[in-house]
Amino acid sequence: MSAIDLYQQCIRIFKFNSIAVGVSLWNADQFLTIGSYSIMTQMVIYFWCNFWTVHKYRHDMLHVMEVLNSAGIAFQLSVKFFIAMYNKPIIRGLLQTVEDKLYARYPDRSSREGEIVYKFAKKCNILIKILAPLYCSSLFVFALYPLYIYYSEGRLIPLFMYEVSYVDWHTVWGYLLTNFVQIFIYVMGLNGLIMADGLVVLLALHGIVYMEVFMIHLDELAKLLQSENVIENKEKITKMWRECLSEHQTLLEYFDDIENINGGMCLVLVFTGVFAICDNLVLCAVTDWYASYSFLLICFIQMTIYFSIGNAVELKSNALDISVANFPWYMFSRDLQKEYLFLICRLQHPIILTVYGFADLSLETYMSILKALYQFAMMILNFLA
């Protein structure tokens, strides 16, 4: 299977998810579709049901926490929906850059660039195919708890703790309606999670591929400069250098667009993820509701994906800066040396992803968050002891 086939498989998954959640990234003519109105209606229903249930059980704090354990992820998905809708042209432009600058230029594995493109396309394809079933399997895990309660205690409980307004789930039809609404909304949320997180993985990994390609071209230019036929290859050197400058400019614009989209998403991800983790840590400590462990796992997996991708971009950006700094610029003509200075000046602003500018999206930031969460967990355990 070729690299473009692997890439198209991922795109087909995202197209299916986008139709389900009404984002329609590949439909340039419509801003809102029937699916968009449907998903916004589901947002209103979900948050209203949560508010109604919290108000109903406001004197039972543990039950309120059980109701709100998924609210953080739901709020995060709602924000991601509006960010994606607002930035549809930018996302389509990024995907078009990937196709034009990588897959169209290097369609086979005969060159170094083609081999790298294929390897990353395969890795990206495997990651997306792992990510989708992993998220979807959480619904099966949540469904086990009501079954366990029914067979062990002989009573029925809903899939999640929030109730549908003015519907008594203790009746047969009320129970069926409550579970239908909860499952339907959760499935739509899964489609949103797969699409949002999968697109971040796909775009960031292909940005790393483009940095690899740029470094290969810079290395080839350096070897040509250090060869014995520099004078004879003067025009070729100039042409290769201008291509490298063009690639670097495209690379900067590419990651600027990713940062414009991903920065806000990451900020919401961190705040809602920390809220969900703290809520579920308390539930894990004081209740036997094992579904809270599943929410913990989802939150940790999601945050790990984002911070790992950001850290990979930062490491590759550092390698790119080193390759530019070690480039034999002194063998250039005077005019090309001036152009090289502009490239060096741009290295003062490295290619990184951030949490909306507040912190780098790196493992160092992630470790700081985990340290704070660990201290919170220890405080809860000491309090219970």
From TrEMBL:
Protein topology in the membrane: Multi-pass membrane protein
Superkingdom, taxonomy of origin: Eukaryota
Parts of the chain that traverse the membrane: 34-53, 126-151, 183-205, 264-283, 289-309, 365-384
Pfam families attached to this UniProt entry: 7tm_6 (PF02949)
Keywords: Cell membrane, Membrane, Olfaction, Receptor, Sensory transduction, Transducer, Transmembrane, Transmembrane helix
InterPro entries, A to Z: 7tm6_olfct_rcpt
Subcellular location, record wording: Cell membrane
Family assignment from sequence similarity: Belongs to the insect chemoreceptor superfamily. Heteromeric odorant receptor channel (TC 1.A.69) family.
Name of the protein described by the UniProt record: Odorant receptor
